[in-house]
Amino acid sequence: MAEERYFISLADFLGFLKRLATEYEIFVPSEKDGRFHLGRFVPEETDSLRLNPCRVVEPLKAFFFPPREKVAEYFAEGAEPEAKKRIIVGAKRCDVAALKILDFVFLQGDFEDPFYKSRRENTVIISSDCGTPVESCFCGMFDSNSYPVNGFDLNLSEVDDGFVVEVGSETGRKLTEGFDGFKEATQQQLEQRDNNRKEADAQIREKVGAAGLYPAEKAQGYLLAKMEDAMWARHAENCVECGACNFVCPTCHCFLLIDLEEAGKFKRFKDWDSCQYPAFARVAGGANPRKRRAERLRNRFEKKFDFFPRNMGSYACTGCGRCVDACPGKIDIRELLKELAT
Fold it and tell me: Which of 51, 132, 170, 292 is deepest in the core (most CB within 10 A)?
């Protein structure tokens, strides 16, 4: 579609969201203790909005692939997806890119996940540029810019007194129709946006260099050359098998189907699972091909840096750094990637 770029003031953007709130459930970023989280937009309680300069703590995947959801009920009609119409504001490139991985998992192949599909189709993504990456970010390893280039409906770039708005889909274009707050972006505003992006991109590249990392296309070869290396056991010594790295990862997608009784009825639920759990790979006969922590840690890297490049042509890591922040054992994915190259 033809490139469309507008300017909207902060006040008008709030008015825009309040208008949309009559039809959509909207989630916006808010700051708490120096970190950003997504929460519900309440029009009558919201007089201001601050876009998150970096990615939020929680991964975007929970909006589409929740930690637990009912998928069936015994002796009842099939569970039909009932996704609400939603808008998510402030998604960063690392999360927008991660949705492509989830789309590959849940929407491609012989079967589609109807629950995931319904949520994706009923969710509008209003992404935004990343101004200041957090300490653990290493998205520059994946040749990422500080802003998304696709996968969004609208994208916001903060400039003086408001935002430059880029239209990324027909859905986004339709949302802007009939709202007078969208004005044609001036050359000065576009230049300010571009300069802000250059500064943020430089920060991202600097962080990758400081971490001793390399272009992502080298990771697969480095990994395959060290599948039997002692590094896996050494780093796995600190793993407490909690699964935090999986649950905060925007691309991890493994799940377990369980049957539970509720009010005298048995229902089937889909729960998040973790490849770091001791029983993750255990089969019905009791055999476990990955009973050691080192084997499970290595498997996680193999999935992200070998399986997905071979099957999708893309790495299942976007460099968000959430796993670094969440790990109680202080296992740093950047350190392992660096060690693979030595």
Answer: 51
* Spatial separation of the C-alpha atoms in residues 271 and 206, rounded to whole Å: 38
pLDDT in tens, 83-127: 899 999 999 999 999 999 999 999 998 999 999 999 999 999 999
Between the CA of residue 232 and those of 228, 242, 294, 337, what are the distances in Å?
8, 17, 5, 11
Helices and strands per DSSP (H, E), number in the chain: 12, 11
3-state secondary structure 258-321: EEEEECCEEEEEEEECCCCCCCCCCCCCCCCCCCCHHHHHHHHHHHHHHHHHHHCCCCCCCCCC
Contact criterion met (CB below 8 Å) for 88 and 125: yes
Distances 110 to 1, 11, 104, 131, 217 between C-alpha atoms, Å: 30, 47, 12, 40, 29
Q: Which of 342, 318, 4, 336 is nearest to 141 (CA)?
A: 318
Average pLDDT for the chain: 95
pLDDT tens sequence across 135-193: 999 999 998 899 999 999 999 999 999 999 999 999 999 999 989 999 999 999 999 99
Q: How far is 224 from 305, CA to CA, in rounded Å?
A: 9
- By residue count, the chain amounts to 342
User: Residue 161 in contact with residue 9, Cβ under 8 Å?
Assistant: yes
Which token pair is 329? 């054992």
Domains of the chain, by residue range, sit at 5-210, 216-340
Instruction: Give the closest residue to 115 by CA, choosing from 105, 125, 100.
Output: 105
Residue 78: per-residue pLDDT: 62
3-state class (DSSP) for residue 6 = strand
pLDDT digits (tens, 9 = 90+) for 269-298: 999 999 999 999 999 999 999 999 999 999
How far apart are alpha carbons 294 and 148 in whole angstroms?
35
